[in-house]
Amino acid sequence: xxxxxxxxxxxxxxxxxxxxxxxxxxxxxxxxxxxxxxxxxxxxxxxxxxxxxxxxxxxxxxxxxxxxxxxxxxxxxxxxxxxxxxxxxxxxxxxxxxxxxxxxxxxxxxxxxxxxxxxxxxxxxxxxxxxxxxxxxxxxxxxxxxxxxxxxxxxxxxxxxxxxxxxxxxxxxxxxxxxxxxxxxxxxxxxxxxxxxxxxxxxxxxxxxxxxxxxxxxxxxxxxxxxxxxxxxxxxxxxxxxxxxxxxxxxxxxxxxxxxxxxxxxxxxxxxxxxxxxxxxxxxxxxxxxxxxxxxxxxxx
DNA sequence: ACCGCACCCTGAGCGC
DNA sequence: TGCGCTCAGGGTGCGG
Length: 301
Prior knowledge:
The chain is an alpha+beta fold. The chain has eight helices and twelve strands.
């Protein structure tokens, strides 16, 4: 599932293929949940436009067009955005074993195809489960979901996190996944960051001390930076727009490792469900917040 | 304020 | 081999 590192990698890979090129034609599949803007309207609005910038806000990608309108893309869980001439994206586990070098042909899951006037490599948006979204915004129009996004996970400071956390009586894991608090963090990196910060995902956000928030932010930055350096994680369907698998999954310490030994203490990694999401942690080295263990007894020196 | 659940969707993995 | 079932999972919206 694409989270901040995967979306940012996608942005960096894709941008050079988009900039200053005029859209000749947009092909889509039939109207569906995927199209927040109906496909016919989308095709009409995009024809003749030029992309001036591709930016990222949390897990959203935004293409700024020459008439001031914008194309908003969200990869959802299984979305793949890639260029035609790239190596073939992995279409499925089965396909990857056989036809991984064959040129890509749009299939029934390829919901968007952008063709350019200069005849350059096409851009494809493929999404098996259609949890992704594509929306066109008129100049000045805004998307309420994007407006409500919290501070980007790469930019967040310990003080930001602490001021939000202290008033929320929810598990820390839930707080990290809340896009209105922190934009870009998803299930994988939330679990990994909590492991690095040695914090129990079930602990209440309001119990986090300043020091713990600082530790968590450091862990988050470290984990996200490392993931980007390795080209993201290819846990399920992610491949970057050049068709290359990310390699971060080989560095996972807890995510989808339940039952396996903790890399620090060999305790069996546990899986619980928090906020309807599977959560993986080490019950031994991820401790609840200091302030949750009652008043400090440092009067006794 | 917070929780639980339904919904969107398809493929993987299971038991038979 | 193949059928039918269940489940996963990000984001959102709703009712409690």
